[in-house]
Amino acid sequence: MIKINLKDKKIFGNEAGEDEKLAVLNSYYIEHSNFDDFFDSDERLSIVSARKGMGKSALLSRLEFKLINDENYKRPLIIRVKGNELLGLGDFKGEDHSYLENYWKQIICKRIIVEIGNQIGFALNSDEMSFVELSEIEGLKSKNLVGGLIARVKGKLPGTGFEVKSDVPANLDKLLQRYQDNDNSPNVWLLVDDIDAKFQNTNENQARVGSFFSAIRSLSFDNQNLNIRATVRSDVWSCLRHLEDLDKLQQYIIEIFWSKKYMRDMLAQKILVYIQKNFPDSNEAKLKLKSDYNKIIDIVFNSPIEWRGDRDAKLFDAISAFSNRRPRWMGQLCRMASKKASENARIKKVNIDHINYILSDFGALRRDDLIKEHSHQFEELTHLIDSLRSTQKEFTQSELHLIIESNFIRGRDVSAIPKIDGKTYVESEDLGDFLYKLGLISRAHEDGKTFTHYTDDPDLYRSLESRKDNIVWSIHPAYRTFLNIK
Fold this sequence. Notes:
This protein has 486 residues and is an alpha/beta fold. 45% of the residues lie in helices and 10% in strands.
């Protein structure tokens, strides 16, 4: 019987998938059939949508690993960028969707040219280079993307700001020609993450982010060898759903949803990979995920436990409930509980008491996540969350509004309440709906195990059913201990 060092945070992988080494992430990544189109080179465009902590960036990393290592992909030219990097290449102003869409096209082509320059051995002075003109972008239609861009660059070398290095080979023309060859030219894969960072639900933000998606749709289908993959938070996509042009993009959206089984397999696979690396000759290293997932998890976690009336439940049932189907939350919870268990040298496994002990700190992290991600949408978010302290875990809409009015609004001039997601505060329903959008509250169903979240039904909080108090709203279990809610 092996003994796991519970202090070793590598047991549960890196909680930020994009920070994990690609090979390590690949070793424990759990495939999902819903992602097939995302990896398919015949699919020109694919956009993954999910809440924070669901693995959007990790999915991009998984694709990047495949592009580098899978010979089925034709010599890809990989360009992975953050949204802020693209935004930094231009000056986005106004709300004219058509103008912004064309402007995005110029920015994206500029970024591709920079990468081509890096690949073929000459430097681009981005401060001096002018944007690719819209007419030129239109001229790339139905042509090889890299060849088309290089043809224009080649013709402009003397006056475009390209700075030829002293070590550039003499056969530069042949090198350029190789990129022009339609048969041998690499496919360009543009991977864009966090284009919606710091998004506020204002007309200007909607136009800027919405026009980006219109632009990548246009570019990906106007060019033969360009594949684009992007991520977007599901709450942001919900805010954009009314934009007329984006209804054409819905078919390219992939929603990330991890069932309890997938979450269980993720945890078991991370533990198994850790054991195989550190105890390769052990019997435990020979276990198989498909048939032995419970045995693998039980190497680290002590079961059975009593959970919601079940005296023979697995500890993973509790982990699943507190993680809210978010891989990042699950990793943090397991790591914190494991660290607590390691304080006693006689403890060999994590038990439910260790999880209960760290729930307050875990809830504080969840609160901090909300503030970091959403405080730009409502500057008094910290106080709004604190207004729920020592209240109750479930309530009707009217009961929640009484709590908000008593603990947050009372005694204040309504005009002093900050805008909520770019809109002027009118009534307490605005704040309740915002809490629903954040995921801090959700609809609780009668079985006590099923919940409806904002991404499932964005309009539910403002529905007539909710206003009639026919819906029970529940504070998510991850926040309850921190908020002193029994």
